[in-house]
Amino acid sequence: MVGVVTDEDRLVFLSFYNPISYYLGPNLEDLPGLLKSFEKETGIQIKDAINLDGGTASAFYAEGVSLTELRPIGSYFCAR
Question: Alpha-carbon distance 4 to 31, whole Å?
């Protein structure tokens, strides 16, 4: 999970995963390239980004989207 601030000062949360397995995400060193690809594909410019990844102890839930954890989660970050 990555939290980004766009050039329009909007907070956006992104989740990157391997389509073969929802539990396989990118390595930290791969994130800059993935964020550049996201900018190119969406036209959304990223001003700041922070990695919020908990590895296999990560989960994501939003209306219509849910990614479950492989290991129990110790804490949650909630936004509304």
Answer: 12
> Looking at the predicted structure, is the pLDDT value of residue 3 above 70?
yes
Helix, strand, or coil (residue 18): strand
Q: Which residues contact 28 (CB under 8 A, 6 or more apart)?
A: 51, 53
Q: Rounded to a whole number, what is the distance in angstroms from the first to the last CA of the chain?
A: 16
pLDDT of residue 32: 95
Q: What is the C-alpha separation between 63 and 26, in angstroms, rounded?
A: 24
What DSSP letter does each residue of 28-67 carry, written as one string? GGGHHHHHHHHHHHH-PPEEEEEE---GGG--EEETTEEE
Residue carrying structure tokens 């390239």: 33
What tens digit of pLDDT does each residue of 15-69 get? 887 778 766 778 889 999 999 999 999 999 999 999 886 666 667 777 887 766 6
